[in-house]
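dumping these here so i dont lose them again. two proteins, back to back, each one seq then C-alpha cells. dont judge the mess
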Amino acid sequence: MAWRYCYRDVLPFTAMVSMECVNVGLNTLFKAATLQGMSYHVFIVYAYAIAALVLLPAPFFSYRSRVLPPLTFSILCKIGLLGLIGSSSQIMGYTGINLSSPTLASAISNLTPAFTFILAIFFRMEKLACRKASSQAKVLGTFVSIAGAFLVTLYKGHPIFMLSSPTVPLAQPQPLHSSNSNWAIGGLFLTAEYILVPLWYIVQTQIMKEYPAELTVVFFYNLCVSLVAAVVGLIAERDSSAWRVRPNIALASIVCSGLFGSCMNNTVHTWALRLKGPVFVAMFKPLSIAIAVAMGVMFLGDTLYLGSLIGATIISIGFYTVMWGKAKEEIGEDSEGGSLESAQAAQKVPLLQKHKNDLV
C-alpha cells in the first residue's frame, strides 16, 4: 500500500515539480542564446534531433524488457500526428513571442489547464459530476490557479524583499501591450499554441493507453518533430550560416534542451500522462510561474514583489484544491471497485455452495 501511494501520488508530484524547475532553467538558457542571434527554427531541429539520437536504442530495449502490443501502423500514425501537433505548437509559440512579448505568452499560457480540462471532459478522460465534491474541487481549483497566475503576470505591487541593486542594469520586461501592429497577430499565434498543447496532452494520453512504452513513443515523437521542424526551418531560414552552431551558449542551450527538455522532460510528461491523466499534468503550468518567481529570488537576486507573493499563494491554493479533488475521486473509484469485487464474490459463493450441496 505504501509503495503504491508513493508510485501513484508522491513520485508523479515530485517528478513534475522537478521538471518545471528544469524548464525554468532551460528557458533562461534559451533566452540568453537567442539574444546572441540563435534562430529558434535551428534550435528546435537540433534539440529534438539530439533527443531522438539519445533515445535511439529505446524501441529495442522497451520491446525486450516487457511484453508490449505490436507497434502497428495506426499507432505510428498517431505518433506522427503527435509530432505534427508538437512541432506546430513550438513554432507558433516562438513566432508569437517574436511578434508580441514574453509577458503576453506567460499570460495566455495560464489558460492551458482550462483548455485541457474542457478537452479531457469532451474526450471522456475526466469525470464531471456537478454534485460531487471532487468535481467541484477540480473546477474551482483550476480557475483559482489560473487567476493566481494572471495576478503574478499582470500585477507587480510593492517590493517586499530586495537585495542590493546590481551594478549592471537589467533589461526591463516587455509590457503586455505593444504599439507594434503585429502584437494582435502574435497573440493569435500564442493562443493557437496553447490550444495545441492541451490537444497534445489528450493525444499522448490516448497513445499511452494503446502502447504503454514511454521511451519508444518519445523517441518517435522527437524524430517526427525534428523532421517537421527541419522542413519548416529550411523554408524559413534561407541563410545557411544560421545552421552553423559555434561552441558557445547557443550550443550549450541546444544540448541541454535536447537532453533535459526534449528527452527527459517529454519522457516524464508522457509517464505522468499515462499514470495520472492530462489535467494533472496541465495543472503544473500555472505552478511553473510561482517556481520561476521563487528561483529568481533565491538564485538570481530578483526582487520579491507583493503581486508575486499573493499570486503564488493563490496558485498554490488552487493547485492543491485540484490535487485534493483528484485524490478524493481516485479513492472513490478504488472504494467502488472494491465494493464491486466484494459483491461479485458474495454472489459466487452461494452458487458454489449450492453446486456442492447438489453433488452431495
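---- next one ----
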Amino acid sequence: MAPKERNIAMMGYRSVGKSSLSIQFVQGQFVDSYDPTIENTFTKVTRINSTDYEIKLVDTAGQDEYSIFPTQYSMDFHGYVLVYSITSQKSFEVIQIIYEKLLDAMGKTHVPVVLVGNKTDLHQERAVSYEEGKKLAESWRATFLETSAKQNESVADIFHSIVLQVERENGNTQEKSSCCIS
C-alpha cells in the first residue's frame, strides 16, 4: 500500500529554527550554518501507528507581522507547524499573527496545528515561558511542544503529533482500525 501523503507547512518568524527542525527530522542532522530560506520542500516516509505516511514538509521563508499570508499556504496543506524561539518574545508575537492570518485565509475557526517553542538548548536566554506557550496552544486547541533542533529533542514528536491531528480532523481516528488479524 502506498504511503498516505500529508503536506505540512512549517511557518514562523525568521531564524526560529524551521529549517533546522526540518533537516533534523528528515536527515537526522543539525545544520548550524544559517542561510535564510527561500522555500524548501523535504520529504520523509515515516510510520505512525502501523500506517506509512509520506510527509512533505514545506519549509517556508520566515514570515513577519507585515508579510501577506500567501494563499498557496491555505490550500494544499493538511496541517501546520508554527514555530517560535523560546529566546524571542518577538517571534512569539509574530506566530500569533501568522495563526490569525492562517485562519482568515482558510475561512476556518480551527486547523490542525502544532505550536513549537524551539531552541530549548538556549534555556539561559529564555524569553517566553513554557506556560505562555502552553496557554496559547490550548487557546488554539493545538498540540504544544518545546524542542531543540540542535539536540534533536522532541523533533520527531512534532511531525507525529501533526499527522495524528490531521487524521483526527479527517475523521480517521486510530480506534476505527479496519484491520483484523485472523
